[in-house]
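Protein modeling request. Please complete all fields; requests missing the sequence field cannot be processed.
Requester role: graduate student
Desired output: 3D structure, token encoding
Chains: 1
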Amino acid sequence: MVGLVSDDGSRSAIDLADHLNSYMVEPISRLEGVGKVQVFGSEYAMRIWLDPTKLKYYDLSPNQVVAAIRAQNAQISAGSFGAMPAPAGQQLNATITAQSLLKTPEDFERIVLRADTDGGLVLLRDVARAELGTENYEITGYFNGKPSSGIAIQLASGANALQTAELVKAKVAELAEFLPNGVSYIIPYDTTPFVLISIEAVVSTLVEAIGLAFLVMLLFPHNFRATLIPTLAVPVVLLGTFGIIAALGFSINTLTMLAMVLAIGLLVDDAIVVVENVERIMHDEHIGPLEATRKSMDEISGALVGIALVVSAVFVPMAFFGGSTGERYKQFAVTIVSAMMLSVLVALIFTPALCATFLKARSHNRRQGILGRIGTAFGDWFERNFDRVTGGYAAAVRTAVRRPCR
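Delivered output (406 residues):
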């Protein structure tokens, strides 16, 4: 929403609404991405206030008044000079332009409603009062107690909200140079910051998810190659999800961004589960990455598909809600379900291929060099303490099971 405010009170809401209609609505409505412009106010209009008592006295009806105004307030061609037929040798002709429409309230009040046979005239001012007002009085606006008027700008279908908002703000700032003295423009309502905040939240969540996945894979398997696999899997799923959103005609808005935030936390888990299970099999059974990957996928493929189906069963019904609720949450449901399905496909196809390609069988020899010794020392320290915490937790659970509270 964009509004005009009379800072010094010298302009009325009618003046501001007329300025919006006359000078700002058309330039803004032609901008790329603008679908509809609604003005909260009307242009100037000549108001004719009829007096019923005087109409009855002169035996006139409102229809007769309307007919007289239409007949005498008309655009009439005034003709031209030098038009045919013209004398021989005539070389110049010119069109005559005349202002035949009435302009002021006094002009309207002099409209003749009836001419009597005795020469008497009944004028509009005899039965009515004319004044320059607004086309309708249904809307009046104030901003912080000052007269104001505004326009609501709606986005065209499929347009970029952020880009359209920037174009509108730039055009309004350009048109503001021609505002009357004592009038300034305001933007009291703008939904695009929420879209921008949602996009920033998605980026922040993506960075945090990849960072946590990196730390988890680095702390537990102690394998830098394993950290690259979830890092590569997440962008693939996100790009595929955006492709599905575009194919279905959905836009990037607060609902789709919320779905992406939730989906990022879920899709990271699939890649981590696959990599950790492959690492476990390689460590326990001392086999190569290709054989470990095949065995791992035989064990967890059903679990991955089951998790995706369970999550989809929660969100899919939201896409079939009726009314405005269904229209709002359809994009949310489709986005998160698409991300989950793509995450499972990546975990079943892309992630195993990366595991078989990137991972290497563990060597029992310690790494050489300063970085290798530091990494090995940290890994040994972490594993000792983690095993200690795990053993203590297991002992506490066993004790609690054996000695239940009564």
